[in-house]
């Protein structure tokens, strides 16, 4: 059972969004090629879905500006611009993304007291999105993932996939992803590789003859 996981391909993370990732919109056509390739048995997506008063927003702290470090629930926290607020256009999937073929959407970041990068669980690793249980119920054996941003939500999703889905082959599709910081992207890829995640591009991903 081959699965494609699309991570946070939302307006908020694309140019013009509230927390834009450089070239974030350029992955959409790559993601659509993957979706339409016929290679995957199952396609799932995660969606950042914050309440307006989320504690990771700089606006929730009188003394903080976006991209400064602060604390949230006693733990270090990057302070973000308000983004992907539930029900807003910023939180919607990019309009060019082929969402008609997505079988299941898992929303994250809804608890105002803890941030949530991974598609699988909050950063405190307590609250689950239900994604791991869903994938196990479907008998997933191979998981390819991509999206925004490589050095945050994609990386943490990949690492959680390795930990929470033992025995599943996990691959990161590099050209279907973009990151915030070039150094952070490089470090994220090395960390993923060191944890057993294979690094591939989209043509390699769908050229796999094991289907």
TrEMBL record:
Residues 3-202 form the Isochorismatase-like domain. Pathway: Cofactor biosynthesis; nicotinate biosynthesis; nicotinate from nicotinamide: step 1/1. It comes from the Bacteria. InterPro entries: Isochorismatase-like_dom, Isochorismatase-like_sf, Isochorismatase_Nicotinamidase. SUPFAM superfamilies: Isochorismatase-like hydrolases. PANTHER family: LD05707P, PYRAZINAMIDASE/NICOTINAMIDASE. Belongs to the isochorismatase family. This is Nicotinamidase.
């Amino acid at each position: 059972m081959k699965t494609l996981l699309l991570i946070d391909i939302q307006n908020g993370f694309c140019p013009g969004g509230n927390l834009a990732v450089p070239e974030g919109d350029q992955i959409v056509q790559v993601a659509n090629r993957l979706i339409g390739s016929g290679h995957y048995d199952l396609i799932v997506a995660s969606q950042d879905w914050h309440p307006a008063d989320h504690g990771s927003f700089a606006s929730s702290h009188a003394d903080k500006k976006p991209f400064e470090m602060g604390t949230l629930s006693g733990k270090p926290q990057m302070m973000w611009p308000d983004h992907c607020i539930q029900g807003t256009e910023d939180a919607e999937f990019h309009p060019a993304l082929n969402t008609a073929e997505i079988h299941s959407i898992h929303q994250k970041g809804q608890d105002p007291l803890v941030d949530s990068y991974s598609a699988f669980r909050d950063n405190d690793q307590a609250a689950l999105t239900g994604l791991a249980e869903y994938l196990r119920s479907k008998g997933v054996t191979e998981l390819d993932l991509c999206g925004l941003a490589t050095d945050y939500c994609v990386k943490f999703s990949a690492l959680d996939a390795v930990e929470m889905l033992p025995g599943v082959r996990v691959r990161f599709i590099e050209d279907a992803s973009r990151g915030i910081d070039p150094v952070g992207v490089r470090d994220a890829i090395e960390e993923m590789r060191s944890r057993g995640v294979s690094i591939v591009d989209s043509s390699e991903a769908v050229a796999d003859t094991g289907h």
